[in-house]
Recover the amino acids of this structure.
């Protein structure tokens, strides 16, 4: 797996920059108008690990994802990421003047042929919409096309910035299951930015809570897949994460009360 070092960075040969890490962030700072939105943040993501990032609006979650994606390089610190990475945003960002299969291939180097797009679209269950125009797609179909565009890049790191936020409840559940299946099949590392605590517990191996520019809390999700919200351990993890976000779960006592 090739490694991409974002600039500006502090050059490092320290043992902490482990080759076994899919993502390695050390002392990352990103400021806007003199205010540090990310403040000396450290982060490790192992190859094949799925990590969810929670936090209040404005805490720096999406800024961190953009930095990992290489879309924001005005930083201080060290950021090591795979060269093969892909991003799916909340908005599918499909080009309306290109058919779905051409959108999937958009930005790929060389001259990839239509069958490359068709294989990716089949993987997300969209083979029947290969030749459609984006405006004819439903919200869920457009998001699946966006996922196909990410997967066709064969990423070692898949970055997801609230990709289900604009979907209705039923479509969202289906999309979450699809991402879980695709991640397990592909075996790449994943980082999901979300406001949805249940979504984080459903999908992630590890959940991080970001606050004041740093990782303030993290927990391993020790549940077998596929996961169900009726599992008592699921409710316990959900309640603890809500508590860390400053929201008490109505159906469970807070950890402080339980003590």
């Amino acid at each position: 797996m090739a490694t991409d070092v974002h600039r500006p960075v502090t050059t490092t040969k320290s043992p902490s920059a482990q080759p076994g890490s899919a993502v390695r962030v050390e002392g990352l700072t990103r400021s806007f108008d003199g205010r540090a939105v990310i403040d000396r943040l450290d982060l490790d993501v192992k190859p094949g690990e799925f990590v969810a990032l929670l936090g209040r609006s404005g805490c720096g979650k999406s800024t961190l994802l953009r930095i990992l994606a290489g879309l924001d390089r005005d930083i201080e610190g060290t950021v090591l990421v795979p060269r093969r990475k892909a991003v799916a945003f909340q908005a599918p960002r499909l080009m309306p003047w290109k058919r779905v299969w051409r959108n999937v291939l958009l930005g790929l180097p060389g001259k990839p042929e239509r069958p490359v797009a068709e294989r990716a679209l089949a993987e997300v269950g969209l083979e029947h919409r290969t030749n459609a125009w984006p405006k004819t797609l439903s919200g869920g179909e457009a998001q699946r096309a966006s996922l196909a565009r990410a997967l066709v890049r064969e990423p070692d790191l898949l970055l997801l910035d609230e990709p289900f936020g604009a979907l209705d409840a039923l479509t969202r559940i289906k999309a979450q299951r699809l991402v879980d299946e695709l991640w397990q099949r592909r075996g790449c590392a994943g980082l999901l930015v979300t406001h949805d605590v249940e979504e984080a517990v459903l999908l992630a191996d590890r959940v991080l809570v970001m606050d004041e520019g740093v990782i303030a809390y993290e927990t391993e999700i020790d549940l077998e897949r596929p996961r169900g919200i009726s599992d008592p351990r699921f409710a316990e993890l959900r309640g603890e994460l809500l508590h860390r976000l400053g929201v008490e779960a109505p159906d469970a006592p807070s950890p402080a009360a339980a003590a």
Notes: Residues 3-84+155-258 form a domain with the Rossmann fold fold (CATH 3.40.50.300).
